[in-house]
Write a structure and sequence with these properties.
Glyco_trans_1; N-acetyl-alpha-D-glucosaminyl L-malate synthase BshA; Thiol_BshA; Rossmann fold; globular; 377 residues; glycosyltransferase activity; 15 helices; 7-stranded parallel beta sheet; Glyco_trans_4-like_N; alpha/beta; binds ligand GMT
């Protein structure tokens, strides 16, 4: 029955990072459509509103034993998934990010007392591109994918990488990410004043600063701009920025770079800025670029991974070859000298986001994926 509400368990990471943000948004959208959604993680996912109807959060506690040098999370997660699967009669466990969620889901499915339970695994990026190449993980990830009822990736680029690295044993479905912007709580003028942006053309970068984000290349690109006096870079840091402060000083960027750790709500900050900038060496999708697009801000990025699927080059965003900081700097200078082009691209970016990456387009694709998994005998 395609109208019957489903009972869905979502295992995800709770901290600032695209996979947890996407999983939280998906769960809340599913609950709004009448489905019962159970979240599993070691802490409440940052953007999850647990006060909403039909949303449940099951914290996974990790016991600390002197005997073990390393605490294990996979088994307590598997036990919690199996317990709730039995009690709440879950139809689906949706694992976001393979390690360790897909493996815990597999163990839970074997332990659960009901045989209806199906596993859907969504790969988000480094679970394929980084851990997938790590001999300590590869085989377990591959096994978990083979034993998932459905496997999805957030871009075609990540699907290709996944099929190259693993023998998944079944078709991999691409379901792009979606985003629903929150209502601004402040005005652009207030935020610009607060950030001390003056009349400067303002770039923004939002990330967890992990090494794949290549903050070194971000700072170098900005440092090579000729129009530096008219330029600011707002970094919305999901983690401590301390490690990069030395580089900011060495490059003489103290007056240009403004850092806000855990700036929230992110929409207010993005509204205050003019253009996004991303210098990752790998990026399966880049949800932050999409966040900006929904707010009418296009981005400049390296041409890596799934980023060319998110924006159309030269129309709703700008791309440079990976590592070419001089090309990045020239692109920034051109934007700062003619901000009208930035605004035009921002309008195109918003059009594209609303046309392709809304919850109303994407959530039904996940629901269809769940229904197909349940229809398998
Ligand atoms: O990139 C990160 O550091 C976070 C990571 C995650 O797993 O949360 O993000 C990945 O998933 C996001 C949501 O699908 C994608 O938008 C990011 O591109 C992807 N990161 C990488 O591929 C490096």
């Amino acid at each position: 029955d395609s109208n019957k509400p489903l009972k869905i368990g979502i295992a995800c990471y709770p901290l600032v990072g695209g996979s947890g943000i996407l999983a939280s948004a998906l769960g809340m959208e599913l609950a709004a459509r009448g489905h019962e959604v159970h979240f599993f993680s070691y802490a409440k996912p940052v953007r999850l509103d647990t006060s909403l109807p039909r949303i449940h959060f099951h914290p996974v506690a990790v016991s600390k034993y002197k005997l073990f040098e390393y605490a294990d999370y996979t088994l307590p997660l598997a036990v919690k998934l199996a317990e709730v699967a039995d009690q709440a009669h879950l139809d689906i466990i949706h694992a976001h990010y393979a390690v360790p969620h897909a493996t815990a889901a597999y163990i839970a499915k074997r332990m659960a007392k009901q045989d209806r339970l199906r596993i859907v695994t969504t790969l988000h990026g480094t679970d394929t591109t980084l851990l997938g190449r790590d001999p300590n993980y590869r085989r377990a990830i591959e096994y978990s994918l083979q034993h998932s009822d459905r496997v999805t990736t957030v871009s075609d680029s990540l699907r290709r990488d996944t099929e190259e690295i693993f023998d998944v044993g079944k078709p991999v479905e691409v379901i792009h990410n979606f985003y629903t912007p929150g209502r601004p709580t402040s005005t652009r003028e207030t935020m610009r004043k607060d950030l001390g942006l003056g009349d400067c053309f303002t770039l923004f970068h939002a990330s967890n600063l992990r090494s794949v984000k290549r903050i070194d290349l971000l700072l170098q690109s900005v440092a090579r701009c000729k129009l530096r006096e008219n330029l600011k870079l707002v970094i919305l840091a999901g983690n401590s920025f301390e490690a990069f402060e030395g580089q900011v000083k060495d490059l003489g960027l103290e007056e240009t770079v403004i850092v806000r750790e855990n700036g929230y709500p992110i929409e207010d900050y993005i509204e205050a800025c003019d253009f996004g900038i991303y210098t990752s060496e790998t990026e399966s999708f880049c949800l932050s670029i999409l966040e900006g697009m929904f707010l009418g801000k296009a981005a400049l990025a390296f041409r890596v991974g799934g980023i060319p699927e998110v924006m159309e080059e030269n129309l709703s965003g700008l791309l440079c070859d990976f590592g070419d900081c001089d090309a990045m700097a020239s692109a920034i200078d051109a934007l700062a000298a003619g901000p009208e082009r930035a605004r035009e691209m921002g309008a195109e970016a918003k059009k594209r986001a609303l046309g392709r990456f809304t919850a109303d387009r994407i959530v039904p694709l996940y629901l269809e994926c769940y229904r197909q998994a349940l229809a398998d005998s």
